[in-house]
């Protein structure tokens, strides 16, 4: 039969994960596939997140074509070299991808032009637009490399149609191998510590799919987020504007006070669900934030500051907008949740604005130190135990 690759919109699925699936198949004793490698047309669900080919060009003897290799290997790519190797001169090579339609799934020509010096190596990455077919061909090639004989080719067929056909022939697909994504806490840390905008958007979309079903969309993700704002954070979604998961949008309208309420709800300090998911998820959320002078986008900030490793937070930058929010503590049990947003600054002055933000955080830290004997003073709160030492 066929081998169907079914995904769940994992925004971190990559080519290396296909190796894990192949290894699992080998471990089950599968040595031959008398069918096709099949994948659905819904790439956001089934395909690798980022499809790209790495092309390496090495100059050969002068006058000869350069040596061209590519990864990942598969029959989906064919090399067309229109370049030459030269000696003692500066050269330049270009790489293009051209899709060739055929009766089956087609293929891409990797076209190389220009000149390259003898012995020199150039590496070029090119995005592959047809991610579903790329994923299926890459999986098929990895099966063959692992010693699994594949009789068929690659086919695109939606899951509903595939299952219907299978049922009409009196059989149903069974699971042969499985790849599990990283835990959600780890994925959120990949978003917050380095400020990964792409993953932030995709995680929100996938969360929307988990709540409302169907394929991931930004609309579903925003609906899920707004429901949490209303139910758990106690914020009317109509009082703010957030149209992405990353905040990478000039349409965003949110106050510093609202950010503080959101942070405190996420940390289970202020939440309408104190014994529910917020309390369970709070440690993972807090651990996902960058540590001042330690890691993420704050690794090079606060290094010589008394706040070093006593603050966790999230940075935000747009042209003309600089933000910093998080939790700062005095080293003991006293802490503050804060949000600072500066609008309208010239982008070339962004580092000066960031220094002023750091001065404000240091002032908060000093305030906490001065109030050590009054831990219940208005505005202070015990930070969760998940904050780093």
Which percent bin holds the helix content?
25-40%
Q: How is the largest sheet built, in terms of strand order?
A: 12-13-14-15
Largest β sheet strand count, sense and barrel closure: 4 strands, antiparallel
DSSP strand count? 15
- Portion in beta strands: 15-25%
Specify Rg, calculated over alpha carbons. 26 Å
* Series of H and E elements: EHEEHEEEEEEHEEHHHHHHEEEEH
The shape, in one word, is globular
Mean of pLDDT: 92
Helix count? 10
How far apart are the first and last residues' alpha carbons, in Å? 55 Å
Class derived from helix and strand content: alpha/beta
Low-confidence stretches: none
Write the layout of secondary structure elements.
Elements (H helix, E strand, L loop, with lengths): L2 E3 L9 H13 L4 E2 L3 E3 L3 H4 L5 E7 L8 E5 L5 E10 L6 E8 L6 E11 L3 E7 L3 H15 L3 E2 L3 E3 L2 H10 L15 H9 L4 H16 L5 H14 L24 H11 L10 H11 L2 E2 L19 E8 L2 E9 L5 E9 L6 H21 L19
Parallel strand pairs: 1-3, 2-10, 3-11, 6-8
Antiparallel strand pairs: 4-5, 4-9, 7-8, 12-13, 13-14, 14-15
Helix pairs in contact: 1-3, 5-6, 5-9, 6-7
């Amino acid at each position: 039969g066929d081998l169907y690759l079914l995904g769940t919109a994992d925004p971190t699925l990559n080519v290396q994960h296909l190796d894990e699936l192949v290894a699992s198949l080998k471990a089950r004793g599968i040595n031959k596939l008398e069918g096709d490698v099949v994948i659905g047309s819904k790439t956001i669900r089934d395909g690798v997140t980022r499809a790209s080919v790495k092309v390496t060009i090495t100059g050969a003897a002068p006058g000869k074509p350069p040596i061209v290799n590519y990864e990942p290997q598969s029959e989906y790519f064919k090399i067309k070299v229109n370049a030459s190797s030269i000696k003692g001169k500066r050269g330049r090579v270009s790489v293009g991808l051209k899709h060739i339609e055929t009766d089956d799934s087609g293929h891409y020509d990797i076209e190389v032009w220009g000149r390259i010096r003898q012995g020199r190596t150039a590496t070029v990455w090119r995005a592959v637009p047809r991610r579903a077919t790329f994923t299926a061909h890459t999986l098929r090639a990895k099966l063959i490399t692992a010693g699994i004989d594949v009789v068929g080719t690659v086919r695109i067929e939606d899951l509903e149609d595939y299952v219907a056909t299978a049922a009409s022939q009196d059989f149903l697909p069974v699971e042969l191998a499985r790849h599990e994504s990283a835990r959600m806490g780890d994925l959120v840390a990949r978003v917050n510590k380095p400020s990964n905008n792409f993953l932030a958007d995709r995680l929100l979309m996938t969360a929307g799919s988990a709540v409302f079903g169907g394929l991931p969309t930004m609309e579903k993700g925003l609906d899920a987020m707004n429901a949490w704002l209303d139910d758990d954070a106690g914020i009317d979604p109509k009082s703010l504007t957030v149209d992405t998961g990353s905040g990478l949008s000039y349409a965003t309208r949110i106050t510093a006070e609202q950010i503080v309420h959101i942070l405190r709800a996420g940390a289970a300090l202020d939440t309408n669900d104190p014994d529910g998911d917020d309390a369970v998820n709070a440690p993972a959320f807090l651990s996902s934030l960058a540590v001042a002078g330690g890691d993420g986008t704050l690794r090079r900030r606060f290094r010589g500051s008394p706040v070093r490793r006593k603050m966790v937070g999230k940075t935000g930058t747009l042209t003309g907008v600089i933000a910093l929010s998080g939790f700062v503590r005095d080293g003991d049990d006293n802490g503050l949740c804060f949000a600072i947003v500066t609008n309208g600054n010239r982008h070339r002055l962004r580092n000066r604005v960031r220094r002023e933000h750091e001065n404000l955080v240091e002032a908060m830290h000093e305030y906490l130190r001065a109030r050590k004997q009054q831990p219940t003073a208005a505005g202070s709160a015990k930070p969760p135990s998940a904050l780093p030492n």
